[in-house]
Each structure stands twice: as C-alpha cells, then as structure tokens.
Amino acid sequence: MSTPGPILASPLFRELHGHLLDLLRTLTPEDWHRPTVCSAWCVKDIASHLLDGDLRRLSAQRDGYTPPGAPAGFESHEALAAYLHRLNADWTAATRRLSPRTLIRLLEVSGEEVAEVFESADPFAPATFPVGWAGESESLMWFDIAREYTERWHHQRQIALAVGRPTPIDGRRLYHPVLDTFLRALPFTYRGVAAPAGTTVLVTIIGEAGGDWFVRRTAEGWELLYETEGRPDSTVAIDQSDAWLLFTKRTARSTARARFPSIRVEGDTDLGESVLEMISIMS
Q1: Is 66 helix (H, G, I), strand (E, B) or coil?
Q2: Which of 29, 41, 175, 251 is the most exposed place for a label (fewest CB within 10 A)?
C-alpha cells in the first residue's frame, strides 16, 4: 500500500501567477464584467478576490498581523465559512471602484511577495491556517500552502472559462497538485459512511493531470491511499475537465451525474456516489 506524502506546491506559485497576469492583460473591457461559474462574482470580482487572498496572507503569515475585532476561534466549520464569506463580500464590494489596470498592477506586486513567503516557509512547521475542508483543526504548513495553491488555480481557471480563453494551467505540472490536494478531503467526506473494515473506493481522474486515489475503511476510520491490494468495492471515474468544477462547488449527488456527464460509477453505487458530495474549498 502507498500512503500519500506532502504536496510541495511552493515552487509552482510564480509560474501559476505569471499565467494569471498574462491572462488578465489580454482581457477586453467587456471581458472583465463577464459572469463566471462563481455565480455572485464576475471576472473582475474574482481578480479582486485573488488580490485579497494575497494581501491577507502577507499580513497574517509574513507580518504576524491580527486585525482588530478578528475572532479568536469559531464554534463550527459553518461559522468559519460564514465569516469568510462576509470578508469576501466586503472586499469585492469595496474594490469594484478599482480599475482593471490598477488591479493588475497590485497583483504584480502581491503575487511576487506571496511567492517569496511560501518559498521561504518551513513546510513542516505549523500552518498559518488549518485546512478545515479536510477536517483538520491543525495542519502543517505544506498543506496550508497547497490549499492556497488550489485556491489560486481554480479561480484562475474560472476566469479562463468565463472569457473562453485556452489556458496552459490544465497540464499535469500545474493541475495534478491541485487534484492531489483536493482529494485529501476524501477521508473527511466519508467520515459518516458506515462500511466494514477493508471496504475500498477508487477515484480515478481521467486525463493528463489525473491519477488514482483510494479511500479505505480501517478500524479507526477512513484513510487515503495511492495504491491498495484487491479489487475496490466501488470505482468512480471523472474526467479532469469536470473534476475541478465538481470539487469546488457543492453539488447534491442527485444532480451531480447529470451536471457532469463524464462521471461513471461502477460497483457499489451508493458507496461510490459519496465522492460526488466532496467539497474541497470553504463553502
């Protein structure tokens, strides 16, 4: 059996951010206001949100700054998500007065500084923020950084989709770490699924950036594996073009297979379809 190790995404931030700036510089005035799959936000709002993520990260991790009135903790995952949604809404509303040119210039600076922070961080130190969607109340820095990488990747992908531009970030080098990070949520997703020890579900992402991930029931709970022995009890196959959309927008299993026709479930259908409820962002 093969247990997944750390995802070291720090070296990828500069490359990913360079593609974002290249994309934003090609946008027309109309493009900036096109709707996106992130239904409340247009393209410009997502660009503003990416800037907010950079500035918040620099303030918290590099500068050790805690804003006045910031909560010391949250009673639940839902309370944390609600707080973040309020912060996001406040920021995007305020920055709608900024021009696209100003946003690009600010992102040029913030992206460079965030890359420096992540590259200099100890990946095995305690994380600045735990990865709540994986069920963790404490995380290591590598997981926090990988989560931040997925945040920047999927929002950049939303922009490219909205404006109908091809994007180089779909290749294995930049996309596979996103999928590998997203799928760290599988054990947390299955935490309430009752099954005998040894029960295994295989998730296959089809495409250049894809691969195989197994979630297996043990006496203590569910664990994530890259390899396992024996035939899985259920196999779920998803095309890589659908995977990022599925894992970043909460979807009921009753509608997921209609919305994403590439999904195939073989074996124990009820067991496998729990994968379709996985959400790898704060939602």
Answers
A1: coil
A2: 29
What is the distance between the alpha carbons of residues 83 and 37, in angstroms, rounded to a whole number? 22
CA distances from 40 to 35, 44, 54, 93, 240 (A): 8, 11, 21, 11, 25
Global pTM value:
0.95
Given a contact cutoff of 8 angstroms between Cβ atoms, the answer to whether 83 and 69 are in contact is no
Closest CA relative to residue 234, chosen from 193, 199, 262, 258: 199
- Interval 59-77: pLDDT, tens: 999 999 998 877 777 777 7
- Helix locations, 27-166, DSSP H: 43-57, 77-94, 100-120, 141-163
DSSP state of 122: -
Query: What domains appear along the chain, each with residue ranges and CATH number?
Result: 10-170 (1.20.120.450), 185-277 (3.30.1050.10)
Rounded Cα distance between 34 and 64, Å, is 36
- Pair of tokens at residue 158: 């939303």
The answer to whether 177 touches 205, Cβ cutoff 8 Å, is no
215 DSSP 8-state letter: E
Q: What is the pLDDT of residue 3?
A: 84
CA distance 175 to 159: 16
- 128 CB-contact burial (10 Å; exposed 0-12 / middle 13-18 / buried 19+): middle
